[in-house]
Amino acid sequence: MKKDLFGRSPLKTLIVLALVCGFWNAGVFISDDAAAGDAQEATQLVGKARYVFQNFTAGRDGKPFRDLVKKAKGIYICPQMIRGAFVIGASGGTGVFVAREPQTDKWLGPAFYTIGEVSFGFQAGGEASEIILLAMTERGANALLNSSVKLGADVTVAVGPFGVGADASTANLSADILSFARSKGLYGGVSLKGAVVKVREGLNAAYYGKPATPTDILVRKNVGNPQAKELLNTVAKYAGGSGGK
């Protein structure tokens, strides 16, 4: 009986090929399922981010935020956040980042990121379920174009003013990024010094239909998704500039 280069009979060779093809196909199906799951997660996250942003601008407590967001170069919205008591352990959430194009004042994005790998001190106590970071400087906005950025090390971060009686003039405007938090409809302060913000490559690829870096999305504008229109228009409504078409 003839044998192949590895000393196998034709029957054994066919069995090996069948197994290889079977595993390869299974990998394709798993990959397709994962991509579909990422696409659904990304779409839902964009919708939640729009809802959260609207909530931050509402009511008397939202006035300092409304004043500062008009000056922001970029906005990171994280609707899926940490739960805990006074000190929150190593955990985090996923959010979206939109950036203001300097030349046109148009809002671009979103790009998807996770935030975590640190213990957060939630100054107001309770649960930090929603967080927004305002990039107040070009340095802060540009830092988020990297695959990973550590708040407080790569860029400066400070707690944004909140609550009735607070004023945007009390903010630490020398900071690159200001952080805001809401829990159960109430504003709070959250210290994010030491937190790591990382790109979610899988969500970016799923949302735009192909691999895309934050630079592709927010600078080169190589990709787009019409589903982002409502989020970008809502941001532009309160922050100024123009949104999606």
Poorly predicted regions:
1-8, 13-30, 84-90, 118-126
> How many domains comprise the coordinates?
1
Taking all Cα atoms into account, the compactness measure Rg is 22 Å
How many helix segments? 6
Derived structural class: alpha+beta
Mean pLDDT: 79
Report the helical percentage. Answer: 25-40%
* Total beta-strand segments: 10
Into which percentage range does the β-strand content fall? 25-35%
The largest β sheet comes out as: 10 strands, mixed
Series of secondary-structure elements, N-terminal to C-terminal: HHEEEEHEEEEEEHHH
The N- and C-terminal alpha carbons lie at a distance of: 69 Å
Describe this structure in words.
By secondary structure, the chain is of the alpha+beta class. The chain has one domain. 36% of the residues lie in helices and 27% in strands. Strands 1, 2, 3, 4, 5, 6, 7, 8, 9 and 10 form a ten-stranded mixed sheet that branches. Helix 1 (10-57) crosses helix 4 (201-208) and helix 1 packs parallel to helix 6. The relative contact order is 0.17.
Write a concise synopsis of the structure shown:
The protein has six helices and ten strands, in the order ααββββαββββββααα. The protein is an alpha+beta fold.
Give the SSE layout.
Blueprint: H1 10-57, H2 63-69, E1 74-80, E2 87-100, E3 107-122, E4 130-135, H3 138-143, E5 148-150, E6 157-159, E7 177-183, E8 186-188, E9 190-191, E10 196-199, H4 201-208, H5 214-220, H6 229-239
Parallel strand pairs: 6-7
Antiparallel strand pairs: 1-2, 1-4, 2-3, 3-9, 3-10, 4-7, 5-10, 7-8
Helix pairs in contact: 1-4, 1-6
